[in-house]
Amino acid sequence: MAYLSPLSFLLLIVAAAAISLPACSSFQTAQTRTLKLSRHQHTPLFSKDEMSNVDEYRNGVTEFLSNFMQRTPQEAGEDVDPLGFIDFSAPKVGKMSLEKLAATLDAELYEKEWFVTGNVNPIYFGDDFQFQDPDVKLTGIEDYARGVKKLFSEDSRAQIISCEVNKAIPNTITVTWRLSGGVNIGPGLQIKPYICYTDLTVDEVTGLVVFQEDKFDIPGWDILLSALFPFLIGKVTAPPAPEVEPRVVKMPVEEK
User: Fold this and answer.
1) Which of 119, 124, 91 is nearest to 105 (CA)?
2) Cβ proximity of 219 and 135 under 8 Å
3) What is the pLDDT of residue 11?
4) Helix, strand or coil for residue 12?
């Protein structure tokens, strides 16, 4: 079992009290129902059952909260796939310069915000793609897409501030973005807006993204405490991240 600091242990107890018993009961009932799911209907990103696509939980609080993930309305049906419009087996894009890939991803992310929508474009990701943030590790771009689609509510935003080649880390593109909205845990929790930094590692040979690591500008306890007790925002916890100024972002012109 992962080690919990005294603060994490306290937050875990608070989180358990904050999540209503009816929501917990409904989740457990949904987990035990027999459903005829399509091949693409995976369990949640934060799920502890035998079908979980999480390789590793990186903190105990997240592992605990995984028990209270909601089921989406789409998952209640037998044939609906919320990401069925994505061809995860599509041919990969040809290798391009790191600068052009950064500009391309900037345009794609600005439009699709797949860090929270799951609406990824798989052509930019290697088959061995891995994701990591302060909470979990997982493998595969499809599992990543379905995980974030399941986790974040429909009003969530991933507003892209910049997407640039990282001059300090080789073969890396860094995306700076503002996360806001909510997560589908228990009755639902609103997220205080904060800034995320996503490092995308690009394979030198294929030119595809093979690793993604997300980092946050505030600690995990601040995120959780702000979600559970929003009246503490700006007093005990950090204030919300400022609004993002709109940008004009265009897809790079194809070379002839």
Assistant:
1) 124
2) no
3) 43
4) helix
Three-class secondary structure of residue 74 per DSSP: helix
Q: Are 31 and 47 in contact (CB under 8 A)?
A: no
User: Three-class SS of residue 126?
Assistant: strand
Quote the CA–CA distance of 38 and 55 in Å, as a whole number. 22
Buried residues in 126-143 as b, exposed as e (16+ CB within 10 A): beebbbbbebbebebbbb
- Is residue 160 within 8 Å of residue 76, measured between CB atoms? no
The pLDDT assigned to 74 comes to: 53
pLDDT at 75: 54
Confidence at residue 182, expressed as pLDDT on a 0 to 100 scale: 94
**Which element (helix H / strand E) includes 92?**
none
- Give the residues across from 106 on adjacent strands: none
pLDDT beneath 70: ranges in the chain: 1-78, 255-256
Q: How far apart are CA 188 and CA 193, in angstroms?
A: 16
pLDDT of residue 255: 65
Q: What is the pLDDT of residue 181?
A: 97
**Rounded distance, CA 196 to CA 192, Å?**
12
Q: What phi and psi values does residue 63 have, to the nearest 5 degrees?
A: -60, -40
Nearest CA-CA partner of 196 in 177, 169, 213, 180:
177
Q: Is 147 in contact with 55 (CB distance < 8 Å)?
A: no
pLDDT at residue 220, rounded to an integer: 87
